[in-house]
Amino acid sequence: MSWAMYSPYFPAAEYREPPARCEITQVNIIQRHGARFPTSGASKGIIAAVTKLKSATHYTDTKFDFLKNFTYALGTDDLVPFGALQSMQSGRNVVMRYPELVSPKDLPFVRSSSGQRVVDSATNWTSGWFLATGERPPLSVILAEDRNDTLDDNMCPNAGGSDVQTEAWINVFTPPIAERLNAKAPGANLTFDDVYSLMTLCPFETVATEKLSRFCDLFSRDEFRQFEYFGDLDKYYNTGYGQALGRVQGVGYVNELLARLTGTPVRDNTQTNRTLDSSPITFPLNHSIYADFSHDNQMIAIYAAIGLFEQAVALDPTTPDPKRNWLASKLVPFSAKMVTEKLVCADGKGKGKEYVRMLVNDALQPLKFCGADKDGLCELQAFVKSQAYARSDGAGDFEKCFD
Question: Name one GO molecular function term (predicted).
Fold first, then answer.
């Protein structure tokens, strides 16, 4: 599915159970909110493009005939019902996957960034847990997005964006599409940006109505693969490796993750809320399951801070590499999740060692940077050592956010 960050969640791979000699002792989940309506800014572009398309004098292709009676009726920003269901199913699925960690005496510790669709996703997740167990974990902490927040990319004012790169790609892939659409809808005079807005209607209307949008039929599979690359570039150059101050925005969460894995206080001087993280009530270290709810841009920053999905060569704004593994649809679809499992594994001598595995949308990550074996297992201390960038508060990058 080539809908980039607007794709509904799907497993990027089949979940692999850890080796029989291993026991999972802790699970850390960070999850994107579920499927939503377009943002208010995106909605303006969509409405303008639809208005132009409907103003055509006539249509020369029957695929466009539905537009004669089409009324745009999508909301803005909020979750759609399907998005709410995604999070609910996710909460239930965690119960099914990790039954050994499910106990009414040890409910998951749940946090959320304060955006309404993120909060709603967190509470829907707890509802899914409730449906599976009869116990509802509380949403214990909501981090305000205008303050220190490790679940939102709001604390690096000097960070650039991806507009230069995405505009370069729009100028490559949309001209022939615009020419084709304008020929089939004379008088519409669609611009390159209009084409992109109309393409987004395919996923947005599909998740809102839960049936394939008729706008999807206006574009070919190859054109949607090109649309996907817009999203890849957007994420790579906004908060990913292509942005000089991208990955530093994920450092705070990584340091919180290290604290949970090691059972030690948070050590961080970046995005963390030190008041909340220093309290055993608002940042406990004695739970088996932790669930945090966030946004796609922040999750990309976290991937990059950890060292996941690093590209040998930076993404080219005008020429996609077909062999790249940086695909927004597999990194941050709606309801995307990164799961970090802590395990104890027998070493054959009756002794157990602590290990870490990481999965992104169920795809086991190779973790070569900490010497993972074929099962994706890194020794816990090797994983901690590998996170030198986060442990050094971004190696000077965080200060550059405010220079």
Answer: acid phosphatase activity
Residue 33 and residue 35: Cα distance in Å, rounded? 7
Taking a C-beta distance cutoff of 8 angstroms, is the pair 369, 386 a contact? yes
Q: How many residues are listed for the chain in this entry?
A: 403
CA distance 303 to 310: 9
Q: Can you tell me the distance from the alpha carbon of 279 to that of 282, in angstroms, rounded to the nearest whole number?
A: 5
The dihedral through the CA atoms of 87, 93, 97, 102 has a sign that is: positive
> How high is the pLDDT of residue 1?
63
In angstroms, the CA 326 to CA 250 distance is: 17
Domain span(s) for CATH 3.40.50.1240 in the chain? 4-36+80-153+247-400
Q: What are 8's strand-pairing partners?
A: 334
CA 401 to chain centre: 23
pTM over 0.85: yes
Provide CB contacts within 8 A for 350, sequence distance 6+: none
Cα 196 to chain center, whole Å? 21
Q: Which two tokens stand for residue 42?
A: 């995106």
Is residue 231 predicted with pLDDT exceeding 90? yes
CA distance 62 to 304: 45
What b/e readout covers 346-382, taking b as 16+ CB neighbours within 10 angstroms? eeeeeeeebbbbbbbbbbbbebebbebeebbbbbbeb
pLDDT tens for 201-217 read 999 999 999 999 999 99
Separation of alpha carbons 387 and 255, rounded Å: 9
**Cα–Cα distance between 142 and 302 in angstroms, integer?**
19
**Number of C-beta neighbours around residue 100 at 10 A:** 10
d(Cα 109, Cα 137) in Å, to the nearest integer?
Answer: 7
Residue 207 token pair? 């998740």
Which residues are marked as active site? 33
The predicted pLDDT at position 46 comes to 98
For the domain with range 4-36+80-153+247-400, which CATH number is right: 3.40.50.1240, 3.30.365.10, 3.40.50.1460, 3.40.50.620?
A: 3.40.50.1240
Bridge partners of 344, per DSSP, are 23, 354
- Place 328 in a pLDDT band, splitting at 50, 70 and 90: very high
CA distance 129 to 157: 37
Tokens representing 82? Answer: 């399907």
Distance between CA atoms of residues 285 and 164, nearest Å? 42
